[in-house]
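Inverse folding, one chain.
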């Protein structure tokens, strides 16, 4: 049992990591967890000379114990071998007195690439063990996940992917990134409605017998590419080790010293990966959880009450506009003595009443390791401007949310802190330009990128610059009630 996964909500069935990756989410609505994660922690002394690739192999071998070593080696090479524009994959920059870990050097210029370049690799290896099995990935996106998933799954054998985005809900750059996607197994479609409409409809499709059962009979399953899948979460553990080792190499810290990480947070996936690294032996004092105006996690970390009944704010850091942080469920499991019944009770309360409250002792245990803060749009713009004026470093709005919260926290704790940078500033060039130069630029997205590049003397990532030359391939826009028929048709065309 030790080397198997089970749901956060019950112990009745165990799966291999292959199976957990193919399924994504447990039938009872829980997320897959691995109980041996905190046994025999890594010895950092043996990792100081490892490359990113070697660290990735070590982390994946431990958390995916039924994958063959040779398969893991191949997955790591395919995922990161020539897809990132930095040999280091996630380079650590010193900016003024601060350390910034840049997670956006992948093909779509957001940190989601780290997980979504790996997930399709792991899924292919899992599929290869099943006779004639095929998978259709369905994903609703508010912008970054859709493109990163399309790029990751493009031309993967026996897998198709359909991405739905809200027709009014994504930036021009994000839409262009998606509708120009290359690959023979990909499909992109706009939905008349907002992100929640698209998301809740996709969830219904997974549960629709009318859609799913006939395909099951032909060995085809539907699966999801969002961050509840362990195949997307686990690759993110690697860069926490990588960042720490860079700090040791640069003699900023000694092996064994504690550090803090500040993480701009939405679904709690990224920061949870950091907690996994801590359980595996990384000396972390605290995680600083940074939210935008959708500060449900800030309230939770302060009061121990999670309450999603609140207004939804559209902000300049849209990838963090989230009120249900799914991966928090895993933290509750690990921090509450791995008690599935308790997790189920809390999650049932969330479903039925929209809120839950944890015990005082659990709250205090969580507060020891996690600090919550938030930044409104005004503060975020000020952070972008201040950092640029003082250091010449250009930050995207999500990273700037983190920067603001990190500075506020550092007044009480001087432990060296690493800020995770989750997107290239060029993905949100208009917002960044406006923050630095104090007025919007009335030009198209590409002209704004050019202008930002010229004025700040920084480079536009090649895939974003090249978008201007790409032909749109996908023009469908449908009502949300037509999604079932649409998926049925596209799945048959693509995979049967
Ligand atoms: C998805 C995303 C986040 C939030 O990450 P979580 O894992 O959901 O907490 C932050 N910044 C950017 C740019 C993102 O795309």
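Residues assigned per position:
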């Amino acid at each position: 049992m030790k080397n198997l996964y089970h749901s956060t909500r019950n112990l009745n069935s165990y799966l291999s990591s292959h199976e957990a990756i193919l399924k994504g989410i447990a039938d009872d609505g829980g997320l897959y967890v691995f109980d041996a994660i905190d046994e025999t922690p890594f010895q950092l002394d043996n990792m100081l000379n490892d490359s990113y690739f070697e660290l990735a192999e070590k982390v994946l071998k431990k958390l995916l114990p039924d994958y063959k070593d040779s398969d893991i080696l191949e997955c790591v090479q395919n995922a990161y071998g020539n897809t990132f524009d930095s040999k280091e994959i996630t380079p650590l920059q010193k900016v003024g007195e601060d350390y910034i870990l840049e997670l956006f050097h992948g093909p779509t210029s957001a940190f989601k690439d780290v997980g979504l370049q790996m997930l399709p690799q792991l899924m292919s290896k899992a599929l290869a063990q099943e006779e004639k099995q095929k998978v259709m990935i369905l994903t609703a996106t508010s912008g970054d996940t859709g493109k990163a998933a399309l790029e990751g799954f493009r031309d993967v054998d026996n897998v198709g992917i359909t991405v739905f985005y809200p027709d009014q809900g994504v930036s021009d750059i994000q839409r262009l990134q998606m509708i120009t996607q290359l690959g023979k197994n990909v499909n992109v479609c706009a939905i008349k409605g907002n992100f929640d409409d698209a998301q809740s409809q996709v969830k219904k499709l997974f549960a629709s017998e009318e859609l799913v059962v006939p395909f099951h009979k032909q060995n085809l399953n539907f699966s999801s590419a969002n961050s509840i899948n362990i195949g997307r979460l686990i690759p993110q553990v690697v860069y926490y080790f990588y960042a720490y080792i860079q700090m040791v190499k640069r003699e900023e810290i000694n092996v064994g010293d504690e550090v803090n990480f500040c993480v701009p947070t939405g679904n709690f996936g990224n920061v949870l990966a950091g907690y996994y690294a801590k359980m595996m032996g990384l000396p972390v004092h605290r995680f600083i959880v940074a939210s935008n105006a959708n500060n449900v996690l800030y309230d939770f970390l302060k009061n121990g009450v999670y309450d999603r009944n609140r207004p939804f704010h559209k902000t300049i850091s849209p990838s963090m506009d989230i009120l249900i942080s799914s991966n928090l469920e895993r933290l509750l499991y690990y921090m509450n003595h791995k008690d599935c019944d308790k997790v189920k009770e809390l999650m049932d309360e969330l479903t039925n009443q929209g809120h839950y409250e944890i015990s005082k002792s659990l709250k205090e245990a969580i507060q020891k390791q996690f600090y919550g803060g938030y930044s409104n749009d005004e503060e975020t713009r000020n952070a972008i401007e201040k950092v640029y004026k003082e250091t010449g470093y250009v930050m995207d709005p999500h990273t700037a949310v983190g920067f603001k919260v990190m500075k506020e926290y550092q007044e009480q704790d001087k432990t060296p802190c690493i800020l995770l940078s989750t997107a290239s500033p060029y993905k949100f060039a208009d917002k960044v330009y406006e923050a630095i130069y104090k007025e919007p630029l009335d030009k198209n997205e590409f002209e704004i990128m050019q202008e930002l590049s010229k004025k700040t003397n920084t480079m536009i990532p090649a895939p974003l610059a090249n978008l201007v030359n790409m032909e749109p391939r996908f023009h469908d826009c449908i009502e949300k009630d037509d999604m079932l028929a649409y998926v049925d048709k596209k799945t048959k065309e693509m995979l049967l």
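Residues 150 and 181 are 7 Å apart (CA to CA). The chain has 22 helices and 15 strands.
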